[in-house]
Amino acid sequence: MELQASLNGAPRDERARAYLAVRSATEALAAPLSAEDCTVQSMPDASPVKWHLAHTTWFFETFVLEPHPPGYRPFDPAFRVLFNSYYNAVGPKHPRPERGMLTRPGLERVLEYRAYVDEHVLNLLETSSTAGLQILELGLHHEQQHQELVLTDVKHLLSRNPEKPAYHPQWPLTEIQARKPRWIGFPAGIVEIGEEGTGFAFDNERPRHKAWLDAFEIASHPATHGDFIAFIEDGGYRRPELWLSAGWDAVCANGWQAPEYWQERDGRWFTFTLHGEAPVDPNTPICHVSFYEADAFARWKGARLPTEAEWETAVGGLAIEGNFMESGALHPLALREAPPEGALAQAFGDVWEWTRSDYAPYPGYAPAAGAV
């Protein structure tokens, strides 16, 4: 779901609708799950769905409600520690690897917490024209990030169940023959990347700045599962010359032979999805590969991963459209229509893109003030 460019200039009723739309979407993601599903975590890097429901609520309570409405009383003071994530300036936090040990508060109590905070946020929106709006907008984007994390963590959790249960049994995918990628060229020159507008952006997306790019080419659409099967069949996981040193160490240490969630049976590859286990569709974009796997695959293809500046230049000006959560497809879809000449397909939605750039601040970056 795409939020309005900015809530600052929006009427009060539109702000309330935007808030409720995001909050209800999160609860809709949890609706197919049992209380038991929502309580456990499958690995230290994952979090229980119940924790996501509570933490996103904690954000609004801590950063919107507590500083603004006079006399606001927290729902439960103990939640300040239980559902803090990494905001050290706020205070202590419960260890991340132990979030799945929190059988209490129960799911019903967490949903009561959400309703309590929602009521107070809506009252604030009704009675104040500007109080907490900037943080409120940040909180909505923060919650949308957690919606993706809910699906990510649920997928990992259900994949560990021998019964391989489906989160969403309906399979909305149709077989479509993959198109061969074209190479799209971009000239050398100075480009501008980063955000400069007045609408919402995370602080690490700013400031807009100039960067030099040598001439480069980029494929017209993402690599497919079929491409990656060819890499596997050519011994990609057995050829150290294709891998960065740290990547080959990871292959050996973890016994990698295929992407996460893949299993080979009787000469066929299967993968676990949120729609259940299914044969790997060779026409759909490859997903669940690490940076090291993506880098090795690109080297095997005689290519390389793009830099962040190259990627931002290649997708700049494209319409933000694609297979997002609202499509109902919780697995990448095959490319249906060829993009216009010189344009990238599936630049948004379906899958994230790996680049070869480090995660580092842009020139001139300044962190936003405050605990957030």
What can you see in these coordinates?
The strands form three sheets. Strands 5-6-7 form a three-stranded antiparallel sheet, with no helix packed on it. A two-stranded antiparallel sheet has the order 1-4. The protein has a two-stranded antiparallel ribbon with strand order 2-3. It has two domains: 12-159, Up-down Bundle (Four Helix Bundle (Hemerythrin (Met), subunit A)), CATH 1.20.120; 183-327, paralog of FGE (formylglycine-generating enzyme), CATH 3.90.1580.10. It has nine helices and seven strands, in the order H-H-H-H-H-E-E-E-E-H-H-E-E-E-H-H. The longest helix has 27 residues, at 133-159. It is an alpha+beta fold and 372 residues long. The two termini are 23 Å apart. The radius of gyration is 22 Å and the shape is globular.
How is this structure best summarized?
With about 375 residues, this protein is of the alpha+beta class. The chain is built from nine helices and seven strands, in the order αααααββββααβββαα.
